[in-house]
Amino acid sequence: MTVIDIGAAFNRRSLARWRANPITFVEEALIDPEIGRPFKLLAAEREFLKFAFAIGPDGRLLYPEQVYSCPKKSGKTTFAAIITITIVVLHGGAYPEAVCCANDLEQSVGRVFTMIKRIVEASPLLQREAKIGADKITFPAFHNATITAIAVDAAGAAGGNPTISTFDELWGATSERARRMFDEQVPTPARKISCRLTVTYAGFSDESSLLEELYKRGMALPEIAPSLRAGDGMLMAWHHEPVAPWQTEAWLADMRRSLRPNQYLRMIENRFVTTESSFIDLAAWDACVDPAASAVVSNRSLPVWVGIDASVKHDSTAVVAVTFDQQAQRVRLVFHRVFQPSAADPLDFEGAIENTVRELCGRFHVVEVRFDPWQMQATAQRLLRQGVRIEEFPQSVPNLTAASQNLFELIQGRNLVLYPDAAMRLAISRAVAIESSRGWRISKEKMSHKIDVIVALAMSAHAAVQGHAPVIVTADLISRLMAMPKRRRY
Prior knowledge:
Layout: H1 12-20, H2 22-29, E1 31-32, E2 37-38, H3 43-52, E3 65-69, H4 76-91, E4 97-101, H5 105-122, H6 124-127, E5 131-132, E6 136-139, E7 145-150, H7 154-157, E8 164-168, H8 176-184, E9 195-200, H9 209-219, E10 223-225, E11 228-231, E12 234-238, H10 249-258, H11 261-268, E13 276-278, H12 282-287, E14 299-309, E15 317-325, E16 330-339, H13 350-363, E17 364-371, H14 373-385, E18 390-392, H15 397-412, E19 416-417, H16 422-430, E20 431-436, E21 439-444, H17 452-467, H18 475-483
Parallel strand pairs: 3-9, 3-12, 4-7, 4-8, 8-9, 14-17, 16-19, 17-18
Antiparallel strand pairs: 1-2, 5-6, 6-7, 10-11, 11-12, 13-20, 14-15, 15-16, 20-21
Helix pairs in contact: 1-2, 4-5, 15-17
């Protein structure tokens, strides 16, 4: 093979030495952009690289299917960038192609490809030979090698001849479209050096089927080193313990406090979990209960935010009012009421919900009422005409994700103050978090369980956190307020 002379460092002898031991190439030629010095590989990374570039008697990679999986914040994305650059430069052959795949183009550009760009720009031996674009890097001196970021589009990727394809966080690849893209990037027999690299942590056992299939295949292989398995054309590292020095005990303790148990198992211990887990630990809920507190009877100057989770039949309907304590920076439960309709005795919205809202408006300063418009459009229109500030809050995935996360953080941080209520405690014990790649939301453990009061609490708490910020009074605001039509107030 003709070697292009691009300086003393890239002569025939150094390339042969680096091909024989790619670790030396990484730690001599590639610069860590964060510190401006050559990379120092982690022990787990060095062990993986000992086998990742192993070549058989036929000149082909022994392990064209490669998986590197370890806990969150282990440097997986950077490691994928390192491997991609190394295989293209040292083993690419004629016109080598590398593709960085992700669920969408923004992710593919924003993760592995961006790290590749940073490493190339920081490494003088590469930077001077690279032509860097928004989603493509070309190395004319390395046989016109290319590294490209692409989105999940199997049809668009068809016909490629990649030297390496990288997939970042494959746990999120849950669609048929993603599976087709993964299949399309199978290592090509047209090249002796061709591989598919997946870097990820664990996914959901009832959702991340593509990743779980890879995991099960890898776990059936012989273990050649701790947490490293190889055979049948596949190399898989699957670590459950931290691999990086920055993943300290203090960080692990912080993750235990911040994450729900299933998320900790998945992201930090790198274990497959189901999409359903307890929404909150009861001990955390109990820590927010003030035994001396009670529902507030009346305080016309107290600003409150109201959430309504309504149902005409079957499910219960809950009305929850909270306030925001500016001094303590906490959300405080002020009032709640639960109605239980049935098929024989459906809920009288006008006699129940509307009267309750009007009652609250007479007892407190109601800043905002949030409701799901599916059952309450007529009720909302009547209340709006009566001067109540009522806002739609459809229980869509984005809205429920935002409200659920907000409530979770309030409880975990003990920034929610509750009065004792056995029924509400029972409801939170039955609430679970349903999670997917789109986010997670509060749901019920069983169809017969009623958690509407928790959903209403999440809605009202979210409104309170969003709306407690002080309003900056300007001349324009005063003029707009003066121009507003006068409405009857309660």
